[in-house]
Amino acid sequence: MGLTIGEIKDIPSLTSFEAINNFLFFGTGSPFNFNLTSVAYTEVGRYKLTGIFADNTQATGWISTQLVDGKVNSYSATITAGNEIPTPALLPGLIGMGAAVLRKRNAEETEQAEAEA
User: Fold this and answer.
1) What residues contact 18, with CB distance under 8 A and at least 6 apart?
2) Which residues contact 67 (CB under 8 A, 6 or more apart)?
3) String of b and e for 30-67 (b: at least 16 CB within 10 Å)?
4) 3-class DSSP state of 93
5) 68-116 pLDDT, tens per residue?
6) Phi-psi group of 56: left, alpha or beta (phi > 0 → left; psi -120 to 50 → alpha; rest → beta)
7) Any residues with CB less than 8 A from the CB of 79 and at least 6 apart, and which?
């Protein structure tokens, strides 16, 4: 008998999905136990997951299928703890950081030109 590190439950149906408690199970009391609350089809071979870890941390993720010769060859999954930050929410901050770098560079060039004069 081998050592069991964790268990992943099957998703019985995507057409009539019901939440799955302990979808990921690493033992009683583990903060990594994960309850799957929803699965949504997004595109061919890709499904979005949402759920919650045992410590009440919200999570999102993806299940993807890899096809070989038009048949499912394998699956991969990613689950990320915490809230996703939508890309548009990041843009103002990135633009502001870029502008600050340009201002600093211009100020340094001006200071250097004045010192040489």
Assistant:
1) none
2) 45, 73
3) eeebbbbbebeeeeeeebebebbbbeeeebbbebeeee
4) helix
5) 887 777 888 888 888 655 566 666 666 777 777 777 777 777 877 777 7
6) left
7) 24, 34, 49, 51, 59, 60, 61
Give, for 60, the enclosing helix (H) or strand (E).
Answer: strand 58-68
Question: Tell me: the pLDDT tens digits for 9-60?
Answer: 888 877 778 899 999 999 998 998 999 999 888 887 788 989 999 999 999 9
Cβ(75)–Cβ(63) below 8 Å: yes
The CA angle 1-6-84, to the nearest 5 degrees, is 165
pTM of this prediction?
0.60
Nearest to 60 by CA among 40, 74, 44, 75: 40
Which helix H or strand E contains 71, and what residues bound it?
strand 71-81
Residues 67 and 46: beta-carbon distance below 8 Å: no
